[in-house]
Design the sequence.
């Protein structure tokens, strides 16, 4: 805590007595979860589970592959990004 009870950056979350997480760590976990969910959505679109019935098969497959690849790209970029401690 800084002066007058104002928290200073980087903020830390107290999870347990010996476990703390900083804001960048929490955001990194959220980004990895969202990237994984985009990959799952892409697979579901290609598998015709999450797509509306009135779109053409070719468009559905292209859309699913693009969404999957975007999720994979975000996952790899975030996973291998250096942490700014």
Sequence:
């Amino acid at each position: 805590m800084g002066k007058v009870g104002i928290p200073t950056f980087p903020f830390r979350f107290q999870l347990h007595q010996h476990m703390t997480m900083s804001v960048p760590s929490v955001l990194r976990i959220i980004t990895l979860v969202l990237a994984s969910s985009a990959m799952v959505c892409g697979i579901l679109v290609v598998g015709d589970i999450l797509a509306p019935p009135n779109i053409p098969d070719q468009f559905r497959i292209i859309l699913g592959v693009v969404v999957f690849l975007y999720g994979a790209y975000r996952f790899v970029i975030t996973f291998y990004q250096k942490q700014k401690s």
In short: The chain has two helices and two strands. Residues 23-46 form the longest helix (24 residues). The first strand starts at residue 12 and ends at 14. The chain has one domain: 24-85.
